[in-house]
Amino acid sequence: MTRDIKKAFQEATDFVDIIKQPVGEVSLDDRKAIATETVENFRDYINKGFLEYRKSVTEAGSFAVTEWTGQGSILVDALEREYIDILGGFGLYSYGIRHPKIVEAVKAQLDRSPQYSQEMLDPLRAKLARVIAHLTPGDIQYGFFANSGTEAVEGAMKLAKFYTGKKGFISMLKGFHGKTLGSLSLMGKNDYRAPLLPLLEGVRHVPFGDADAVEQELKNALAVGDDIAGVVAEPIQGEAGAIVPPDDYWPRLREICDKYGVLLIADEVQTGFGRTGEIFGVDHWDVTPDIMCFGKALGGGVVPMSGFFSTPKIWEVMEPNPFMHTTTTGGNPLACASALAALTVMHEEDLPRQAKEKGEYVKKRLNEMADTYPGIFDTISGRGLLIGMQFVSDEIGYAVASGLFARGVITAGTLTNAKCIRFEPALNIPYELLDEALNKMEDVIKTLPKN
Ligand SMILES: *Cc1c(COP(=O)(O)O)cnc(C)c1O
Predict the structure, then answer these.
(1) Is 269 near ligand 1, meaning CB less than 6 Å away?
(2) Is-above-0.70 flag for pTM?
(3) Closest Cα to atom 15, ligand 1: which residue?
């Protein structure tokens, strides 16, 4: 790309003008031009690899589906095509898109102070920590805020190393904790790790849901003189396809970690804040971990936000030099305003209960479909509105995902990885939209060739 400073400024200026126009007033010609240019821009400036993987490009007809606006559980593209969102941004949109109360709080904070000076004490961050301390189980109390889920996990790993003076971790096969180098070390999938080895030293992986395997690994580590700082797991595995562990798993992890003097770290980035039908995933089993990681829905689907929290006893190691772990923008006032408003919405709308009831409703319908149309579904798993549909093959999964897309329903699922599709809508999605999405799914399934 040849350097053209004038053009850079001109294009930025033009686009800011479009952004500033009220959403309904941008002309159709401008929106078509944007849809066309966005594909080119992905191809030329982001990563052309994406274009082959997105249904919004490959299945959309003459104009790629270009995200424009949305409200609640409806996404609207630049050409005003509407989609029911049952992907929920992989757990980001627990409150729906642009929840009015969250947007209102963020706008108000934007007009007061969007970022911190870095020197004065910031009231929003302090308040949010206090609120989360009240909300979390057991003696979890102190927290640190960041912007992405992976940063929360990185922080949790550092805290565990500081506190225990040890270096290793045990994490779970198929687990997902983010893609920066530290979190990636915990990942339980070959594809993303292998090209980057060696990652952090001393990480061992065991099957998810098998507490004996964790204990065995801790015994092995002791026997050979390796040290383990912590055991890291998602309460319910999200990325792996909404995998629920046996009921005694988390209580046993708690016991085992206490017995061997290692920290229990719950990655609640996807399960936190109502998603699975309780405020936190660990609440299903009344377990208090030593460290909890949050992300995704924490920011209310408006501003990115994450954090990790722990107990006063463990947090003491952060006190002599609080600059051992810092971030310039983590926990900024906009993000905190968004999170505080999101928590009020979670409470007012009783989102954990909604997730629980709607999750049961959806699973019942999916199970009925699986009975009516055999040879399509392998398993249906999950809790609350973190639901995984495992199909018998990638082809069938992709046929379902693309058939839904053609009928105006957004799900994940790519050609190469469609065997498992998550059903993860906003927790306050109206039943009518759930029904519409499920009816369309049944519609698609009816058209599939019989095995
Ligand atoms: C999404 C996710 C992460 C990573 O969050 P990012 O914001 O994408 O970095 C970490 N852990 C779990 C359990 C997740 O689902």
Answers:
(1) yes
(2) yes
(3) 270
Burial track 88-109 (b if 16+ CB lie within 10 A, e otherwise): bbbbbbbbbbbbeebbebbeeb
Ligand 1 atom with least separation from CA of 179: 9
Helices 333-348 and 351-372, packing angle to 10 deg:
70
Pocket test for ligand 1, best of 94, 176, 273 (most atoms within 8 A of CB): 176
> Which distant-in-sequence residues (6+ apart) come within 8 Å of 285 by Cβ?
235, 247, 249, 250, 251
CA–CA dist 152, 297 (Å, integer): 13
CA-CA-CA-CA torsion sign (329, 334, 335, 337): positive
pLDDT digits (tens, 9 = 90+) for 31-64: 999 999 999 999 999 999 988 888 888 777 778 8
Instruction: Encode pLDDT of 417-426 as tens digits.
Output: 789 999 999 9
Burial of 40 (0-12, 13-18, 19+ CB in 10 A): exposed
Phi, psi of 171 (to 5 degrees): -130, 180
Q: Is the CB of 177 within 6 Å of ligand 1? A: yes
Ligand 1: atom nearest CA of 293 is 11
Question: How many structural domains does the chain have?
Answer: 1
Containing structural domain, residue 108: 101-348
> Does ligand 1 have an atom closer than 6 angstroms to the CB of 377?
no
The response to whether residue 356 sits with its C-beta less than 6 Å from ligand 1 reads no
**398/181 Cα distance (integer angstroms):** 31
For ligand 1, the distance from its centroid to the CA atom of residue 112, given in whole angstroms, is: 30
**Residue 35 one-letter amino acid:** A
CATH number of the domain at 301, please. Answer: 3.40.640.10
- Answer yes or no: is 85 within a domain: no
- Asked whether residue 418 is assigned to any structural domain, the reply reads no
362 within domain boundaries:
no
Using the mean position of ligand 1's atoms as its centre, give its distance from the Cα of residue 332 in Å.
Answer: 19
In a domain, 131, yes or no: yes
